[in-house]
Structure formats: structure tokens, C-alpha cells
């Protein structure tokens, strides 16, 4: 919250003293007090978006009788990539505000990989005037490695600029944890540029001495824990544990049993990556709170983890609790055993009611700069899908990415594929498909390979959501479908498509950095659903082949991946030939 | 902790990784983990004053086997006026470091009233190179009111200067709570100058709407709670509760029953004002921890209130826990049911053992500027003690300050005093003594009155410790003793004295601002003991007449007080005549 001026503070105090009427008084609430851990019957007086007083005997210009409903502080998502919802910030807000989530700490890592500083600044600008309080952290690992072509690189100086001009609050997940642990100079430079600020972590399975080094460097949180021993060790070493329940990573139920009265203050909730449909159908942090309570966590404790704890970790002293001087971000609900927002106030305004936004939609008010809105720089002359296998017999032995359902890691398989007319080809009957990654940032070229697990009997899927570089990825059963899919995504300015031969079965334009739609979130979710259905009709057994595809080009997660520069043996950290 | 440079961080990480030997490894400790709430058997590796790792398998250049002793983070005093110990920072440190208190958040309010900005800067400079980590807050109410002559006035601009040059961390106790609540512009200016920083509170018995206003203004803590309902209300409104156990204000045992697993994270410990003898005999925050445990608070919870909680309130992310990257401030003890420091490490150095400092004494290294070291500017020509009572009969009706044992409030009494040779005089038989307050800052003059409760049968006591202005106060049975006492304190350059006619019975020079001795703390405590004894021999029934005297000139605490400008009816907030 910006520091008020004397007049603003003075009138807030007059309302707090009860000498001037409040803008709004919410009467007869059962207020979740995250400080005392108790629930108190009280009224809440609100002035200019801020809570002026909690107690009795306030008079408001407007008064609402809550008739005993519960009032919690607006929930906080402690770590989320808005881009993963496939929506721009305004529509992401439209998805989560009705859930009672009023603050999101975001890492614009994806758009930064596409559009660099402009991408980060666009996300901050597009979030600025929303009723959702968006706290932007600086993406710490752009690009992920030099084995890919990304749209931008951000060094320590860039990140320091973002801090200096107030765009960012701290440093987002430090994914290059080996670089931190080993003290790589360019990584330490980023850390030191954020001295005294909050530094989020990302260090799957890090333990022992290496974990000590990671924490000693100043990292203060971790959201990658998957097991209780891992989370307990990290918590004991001083990291806030941000329990994650993403679309593609489900840690909540595994970790709930670790929560005790002694350690709960060091635990927060985050969603990390959630697609629009999950946000609309299941919810966001509110879903995690309900699940925690259903598991047996005391409701006030669960709500405290989703509010005060995150506010404390990030030093957001102006929110996270229902108290004078804090933002009037409130989630009002009726069932303490399963909090589901009925009314949501953000900055003192009623923004959502019974799960729906009120009033005008939340389209971003800021213009989309060309560097963000026009990011398909494919050199189409260089796009071609045949894989010549000179000198091969009827089959050729190749490396195949073994994709595993609901996992980001892959297997590094060696298989024979048919050779037709001198080219190695897909073999849909054995679920061996072709995969291409096409540089869409600089038009430098593309690479090709084989993949198993997607199960398409025919056709192709393509998309520009591909961590972390977000190049154009195509997976298909035949070259013609792949070309149509790739070109269609190109014509959309980025997005997702599923193609059967010449026919576009479904698509979702993502014109904002090739990552986000600026259409209403419900439309995005519906289009995404049609994409899934079409892929299933083509034979894919996967729950979400597009999500799966988006990790097949991510060369920091083992074992075999394909970037626009070639096949990467992740453990060896080197490029490998297709043919064995 | 200052932000390290790349080389420092790099070598810390090498030690954390176990690739370089640590400076020191403490083996086989039972480590109090304030994050998990558990006690874990572990080694602690220390590099350059910082904890590099917690766990096993570290090698140190020096290794110490703790043989199962407990290790807690160094304790934090969340609010203390060093001046109240009557010692300079170095000797205050020598008193509390052996207790395991390694961080003190200090408000140099007293020296600021005498020596202004120079006083604040002196305290910061004298604290800088100590093994005690001193966090200086900016005194918020200098002077207390305009009904006294103080040595300095600090306005919002002054305080902003202290913040800008790094002297202070936040704003110390906002004593002018009516000014905050009512939005007095000069008070709000101070608050706004510290926007985003920590603002400590001081608002005895504030409640309801006024409390809401106080919190809405941005105040975040309170150490003046005396009852559980008061503390519960303040905690629920969002204030950290700093439970205080001072020499002159005992709140600990009254408030211990409020502590619950749900609210303990919002509760800290502080001493506020403790004389040297109490620190040496009873202890500091360590005493509070022992008393809390004896009362029934779980030991790790009690230690956590004395460490992590205070670190969190003040945003001291570099200490308050035993974890990588935090200062190697450690308190090692043997009895979990009554933690008493056996070894104390500060910044990785063993600074105290079995209750005593090791090595050289802790005299301040910084020179004492003249504005701090030479503060007795009394105009002795204007010092005279007779109280003419023109036209009075054998007695005159006067206002008498009714001093009450162990209370800062006084009664406003109307009594007859004898008139001798045309002057109203003391009547020791009825315990009516004369009191004088002499401006020692500008030499503008003095005022006279009567007081009951000090019980001197003869002689006088005098001193320059007199909240908040710290003028020269004299209380005596006869004018001659009062003059000798006053002049002796003057000749000491400030201090305390007790006199019987021409004889100095005992004294304690306080040449630093008339508030602090630069002698060893044990000598200060001994001299203070002799002062008490001498006052008792003169007939005073008070436990500590010097402490009592130091509040008799404080015109912000009811009912009748005497400043150098005259008698103050505190409730009416106006000067009143001596004769009724």
C-alpha cells in the first residue's frame, strides 16, 4: 500500500475515532482474528479502502448487516505465475477474486522469457489498477539455460532496475539452485542486488549441506516440497514452506500432515501454475483452505496460513489481517468448515458476489506493447518436418523422449523408428510421434525429435506455451498436420491448436506474448476444454496433452528434452544426436 | 546485518557446502529450533560471525563439544532505554551479554532529551563496535511537552535525518498517543517520515475507537499493557505485545496467563528500564524466559518469544534463529526448565562464560562529544531554595505532590506547611519535604514545591535523572542540604548524590549526559546501592527514592508534578500556584 499523505491519514483517523462516518460499516460479522486465533463478533468500519476500526458503534454512509456471517482477511496466493492461467492479469483477477483471493504474489517468469523487461513491466502495468492486489517479484532465471533460444535475458542489472523503479517487490523463485549453492557470480549478483528484500526459493529435494548453502545465501522460502521430510528439513533450516497445489503439481494432501501448532506460522499456500478451468471449477487458495480444514486443520489456522503468514513472509504489513490500517480486503462466507466466498471486498469495494464478479469486466487498462503483443518471429522458410536418415535401413535407432503422465521428468529411450523414403518417420501405432521445437523469438531455426506418451493416432498439436523459452512446439503423427498446426498457431500470433490433416479442430489464440488470452476467463477455459476434447478424439490418452507438451522442451528437468537448439541430455547437460 | 559483498557470500557458501572448514563448529548441541518448535541434536558451523550450516559433518578450525547442552538463539530485548541502567552502551552490554541477551532494540529517548541529535548519534556510535547488536530507534517525543525545559527538541525532519543516514531502524515508542489518535500534524509528520518502517507504540490503557485510530496510524507494538484484557484487545487489533518487566514496572506475571499457542507469535519480551543492579542480580530477558517457563509456558515457546518473535516484529531477518545466514548469536545453557547462559556467543565469538564477560571490558570506543559529556549548564546565581510566603500566618496552605511507593502517578494534596521567617518550610516530621527542579540545559531558572512520601528526616537527595527533561531535581529536609546536594551533583557533571548537611554521604557521577556512568557496571551498581543505603539512613522508607524522584518531574503522568517551569496539574494540563 502506498504511504498515505497527511490528509488521507488524518481522515482515516477521524473515522477510526468515530468522529466521521465510515464509507462502509459491515455489521455483525464473525471476524476471523488471525492475531489472536479467535473469532470475534464485531463490526468493521472501512474508509477509503482501508479498515479504520474493528469493534462496535461505528456509523457508515453505507451499512451492510452480515447477520453473523464469517469474515476472513482476503486470501493471499503466495506464489503464482499468472501466465499459467492463459489469461491476462485482468481476467486472472476475474477468476480468483470471486474465490476470496485478493492478493497474488506473482512471478512473471514466462512473459519475461518471451518479452524481457517489457514483459515484466506489462504485467505490472496490467495489474496496477485491478481490484486484485498483485505483488510482482523479479524473475530470477531468464533464460533458464543457454541450451535454448529465449526471447530475452535478464541480468542482475536488469533486475536491479526493476527494483529501483518500484516494479518488483523482491526476487522470484531462485530456480538456478545449483548456481546459488555453488556461488556462481552472476547468480550471487542477482541475490546481492536484492539484499534486504524477500528472495523466494525453488530447490526440489535440496538437502543437507547444499540446503544450508542455499539458505545462507539469503533465500527465504520454498514451494517445491513434495514430501514431509523434505518440507520439515527446509522449514527447520528457516525457509517458509509455501505448500503448492497447482494444476500440474499436487503437494497439498501430501504435506498437510506436517502442519503443527508449533510450525504452522512458517507455512503458506500457493498455486504456482493453475489453468483457467481449474481456477473456475475448483478454485484457488480457497480450495486449499477447504481441503486443509477437511483434513483436520483448525479453520482459523488454515485461514491464517492463507493470509497473515504470507503477508509476514513478504513483509506485506498492510494486509493479511482484519485490523485498522490494513487494506479492506475481505472474504465473507457462511460455513466455517468449508469457507466458500459469498461476498468479496477488495479495497473496500464489493467486487464479487456468490462466485461472480460484479460490474464491469476486468480487462487490462494498459496497452499491450508490440514487444508483448507481437512475438511470433518464426522464419517459416526454415520450417520443415522431414527427418532425413541417410544410409539407414528400413528402421533407424533414435532417441525418444518418454513422456510420463502427470510428470515433468521424462525417460530417455532408445527405439527403432521406421524409415520411409530416406526419412525417419513417426509410428503412431507404437505411440512414437514426431516433435519439433521452432525458435519463435529470433527465427534462428528449429530442431526435431521423437516422443512417446501423447498417443495421437493422427493429426498434431502445437503451441507457444513451452517452458521456459516458450518457443513453438509441435507434436504430431504426420508432417502435414504438423505444418498446418504450426502455421495456424503462427497466424494466431501465438496460442494452442489441434489439427487433423488440413482441419483445425480447435484452437485458443494467445496473442499476448503467445502465452495469454485477453478474452474472458470463461471463454479461455471453454476453448481449452475443446482443445482437450479434440486431442482425445485424435487418440491422446493424456489428461492434458497441452500442459504435458509445455514441459517437453524444458531442458532443466531430466532426462531427455528437446529445445529449438537440439536434444538435451539433461543429466549430462549436453546436446545429443538424434540417431544413436 | 550489512549486506555482504560477493567474496564474503562466496566464502560463506563454501563453508556451508562443507568444502572449506568453518571458523568454529559447535558439536553435539541440543538446538532450539524456533521455526519447527522442536529441539534437534545438531552441530552448528560458523563462518565470519554468521551461521553457515546446521546439521552434521562439518569440520572447523576450532571445534567445541557442547556435550548435549542446549543452544538457543541469542535473546532479544525488544525495547529498552540503555540510559536507565545508568551505564554507557559498553557497560550495559557487559551486563546483559553474559545473560545471553545479544540484541537490544533501544530507544535513546533520555539522552536525546539532554543532548538531542548528538545524544542519539553518540549512543549509536558507542554501540557500533560492541558484540551486543544494538538496534537504535528514533526517539519520538523530545521534548515530552512544552511545560518543561529540555536540552533539545527533535522534529520530524530531525528524525528523518536519523533514518536517512542509517542511525535508526524505526520510530521508538510513540508516547504522544493522544497526538497520534487525534492526528496532530507534527505527530503525523513523524509517523509519515517512517512510512514502511517499524513504529513502536506506548499507549497505556488505550482502548476501543481510540485504539483503532492509534493502530490505523501505523503503530505496530505496545509495551505498556498492565492487564490481560488490555493486552488481549491490543493484540487482537494487530499490535505486537511486548511484555515488560522493568525495575519500576512489573507486568510479566500479570500477563503470562494470556499466552496461548494461537497468540504467542505476537508476543515478545522487553525490559524497558532496568537499573544496573537488577541486570546483574536478576538478569534481563533471560529472567523473563525463566519466569515464563516456571509459570508453565513451554520452554521453546518462551525462548521463541524472546528471539524469533522480536526479530520478526522488527524485521531483523538476520537473527532471532539458529539458521544458515543468521548471526551466530547463541546462548548455551544446561537446564531447559530454567535457561541460564553458561556460554554466550555473539557474532561467532565466545563473549561470556558462566555469567562473566571474557577478555577486555567493553568501554565505548567512540569519543564523548562535548554536547553529551558536558551538560550541566545551571545558572547557579539563580539557585536558591527559600519559598517566601508573604502575608502568611504561622502556616500556609500549599499544593503537595503525594508520591506513592512504586507508582509513577502522584496525588495532588493540599496541606498546611509551617511558615518560618516569612518562608514556607519543610516539615520532615509530617514527611513534607521541599522539592526543587533546576533547569540544567539553558540555565533559565528553577521552581520549587513540596512533596510527601520520601520520608527523609534530614538531609537531601539530588540527581540529574528526571524524566523526560532530566533537569536537576533536589528533594530535601532543609535548604542547606539541598544546596550542597545540588552543587555536588553540578560538580560531578551530573549524577546522583545524597547529603546530610555539609556531608556527602554517597554519590554516583553520571558525566555522560548527566545520565550515564562510563565506569564498570558492577561499580555503578555498587555505588547505587550505597546511595540507597544512605537515603534509608536519613529516614527514607522507599525501596528506591532515586528512581521515585526521577518521575516526580514528569508532567505527562498525573496528578501533580513539578518541572523547572512550575507545578503542573497534569489532568488540567496547566501550571498551578504553589499557594492555594
Query: What class would the helix/strand composition of chain A place it in?
Result: alpha/beta
Give the overall pLDDT of chain A as a whole number. Answer: 96
Q: Ranges of chain A with pLDDT <50 over ≥5 residues?
A: none
Tally of individual helices of chain A? 17
Spatial ordering of strands, largest sheet of chain A: 18-21-20-19-23-22-25-24-26-27
Can you describe this structure?
Two copies of one chain form a homodimer. In chain A, 27% of the residues lie in helices and 28% in strands. Chain A has 17 helices and 30 strands. In chain A, the strands form five sheets. In chain A, strands 18-21-20-19-23-22-25-24-26-27 form a ten-stranded mixed sheet. In chain A, strands 1, 2, 3, 4, 5, 14, 15, 16 and 17 form a nine-stranded mixed sheet that branches. A five-stranded parallel sheet of chain A has the order 6-7-8-9-10, with helices on both faces. The radius of gyration of chain A is 25 Å and the shape is elongated. Chain A starts with 5 loop residues before the first helix and ends with a strand. The model of chain A has no long low-confidence stretch (mean pLDDT 96). Chains A and B meet through helix 1, strand 2, strand 3, helix 6 and helix 7 of A and helix 1, strand 2, strand 3, helix 6 and helix 7 of B.
Amino acid at each position: 500500500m502506498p504511504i498515505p499523505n497527511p490528509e488521507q491519514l488524518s481522515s482515516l483517523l477521524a473515522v477510526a475515532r468515530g468522529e466521521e462516518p465510515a464509507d462502509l460499516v459491515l455489521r455483525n460479522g464473525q471476524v476471523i482474528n488471525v492475531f489472536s486465533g479467535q473469532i470475534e463478533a464485531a463490526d468493521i468500519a472501512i474508509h477509503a479502502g482501508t479498515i479504520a476500526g474493528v469493534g462496535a458503534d461505528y456509523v457508515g454512509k453505507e451499512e451492510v448487516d452480515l447477520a453473523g456471517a464469517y469474515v476472513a482477511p482476503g486470501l493471499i496466493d503466495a506464489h503464482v505465475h499468472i501466465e499459467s492461467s492463459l489469461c491476462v492479469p485482468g481476467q486472472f483477477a476475474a477468476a480468483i477474486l470471486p474465490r476470496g483471493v485478493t492478493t497474488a504474489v506473482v512471478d512473471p517468469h514466462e512473459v519475461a522469457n518471451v518479452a524481457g523487461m517489457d514483459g515484466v513491466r506489462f504485467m505490472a502495468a496490467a495489474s496496477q489498477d485491478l481490484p486484485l492486489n498483485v505483488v510482482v517479484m523479479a524473475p530470477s532465471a531468464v533464460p533458464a539455460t543457454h541450451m535454448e533460444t529465449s526471447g530475452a535475458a535478464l541480468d542482475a542489472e536488469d533486475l536491479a532496475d526493476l527494483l529501483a523503479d518500484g516494479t518488483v517487490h523482491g526476487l522470484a523463485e531462485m530456480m538456478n539452485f545449483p548456481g546459488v549453492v555453488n556461488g556462481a557470480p552472476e547468480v550471487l549478483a542477482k541475490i546481492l542486488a536484492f539484499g534486504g528484500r524477500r528472495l523466494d526459493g525453488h530447490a526440489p529435494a535440496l538437502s543437507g549441506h547444499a540446503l544450508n548453502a542455499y539458505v545462507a545465501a539469503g533465500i527465504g522460502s520454498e514451494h517445491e516440497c513434495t514430501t514431509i521430510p523434505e518440507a520439515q528439513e527446509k522449514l527447520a533450516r528457516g525457509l517458509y514452506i509455501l505448500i503448492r497445489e497447482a494444476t500440474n503439481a499436487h503437494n497439498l494432501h501430501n504435506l498437510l500432515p506436517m502442519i503443527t501448532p508449533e510450525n504452522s506460522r512458517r507455512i503458506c499456500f500457493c498455486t504456482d501454475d493453475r489453468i483457467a478451468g481449474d481456477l473456475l471449477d475448483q478454485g484457488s487458495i480457497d480450495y486449499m483452505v477447504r481441503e486443509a480444514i477437511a483434513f483436520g486443520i483448525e479453520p482459523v489456522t488454515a485461514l491464517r496460513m492463507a493470509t497473515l503468514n504470507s503477508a509476514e513472509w513478504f513483509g506485506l504489513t498492510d494486509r493479511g489481517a482484519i485490523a485498522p490500517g490494513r487494506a479492506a480486503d475481505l472474504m465473507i462466507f457462511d460455513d466455517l468448515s468449508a469457507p466458500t466466498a459469498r461476498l468479496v471486498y477488495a479495497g473496500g469495494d464489493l467486487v464479487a458476489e456468490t462466485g461472480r464478479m460484479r460490474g464491469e469486466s476486468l480487462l487490462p487498462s494498459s496497452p499491450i506493447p508490440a514487444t508483448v503483443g507481437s512475438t511470433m518471429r518464426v522464419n517459416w522458410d526454415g520450417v520443415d518436418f522431414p527427418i532425413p536418415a541417410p544410409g539407414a535401413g528400413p528402421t533407424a535407432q533414435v532417441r525418444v523422449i518418454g513422456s510420463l503422465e502427470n510428470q515433468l521428468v521424462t525417460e530417455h529411450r532408445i527405439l527403432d523408428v521406421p524409415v520411409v523414403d530416406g526419412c525417419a518417420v513417426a509410428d503412431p501405432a507404437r505411440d512414437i510421434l514426431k516433435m519439433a521445437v521452432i525458435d519463435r523469438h529470433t527465427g534462428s531455426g528449429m530442431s526435431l525429435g521423437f516422443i512417446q506418451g501423447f498417443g495421437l493416432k493422427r493429426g498434431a498439436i502445437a503451441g507457444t506455451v513451452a517452458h521456459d523459452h516458450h518457443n513453438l512446439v509441435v507434436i504430431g503423427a504426420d508432417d502435414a498436420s504438423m505444418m498446418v498446426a504450426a502455421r495456424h498457431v503462427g497466424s494466431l500470433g501465438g496460442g494452442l491448436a489441434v489439427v487433423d490433416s488440413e482441419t483445425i479442430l480447435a484452437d485458443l489464440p494467445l496473442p499476448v506474448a503467445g502465452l495469454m488470452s485477453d478474452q474472458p476467463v470463461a471463454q479461455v477455459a471453454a476453448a481449452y476444454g475443446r482443445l482437450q476434447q479434440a486431442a482425445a478424439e485424435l487418440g491422446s490418452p493424456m489428461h492434458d496433452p497441452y500442459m504435458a507438451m509445455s514441459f517437453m522442451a524444458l531442458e532443466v528437468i531430466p532426462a531427455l528434452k528437446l529445445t529449438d537448439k537440439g536434444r538435451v541430455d539433461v543429466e549430462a547437460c549436453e546436446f545429443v544426436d538424434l540417431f544413436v
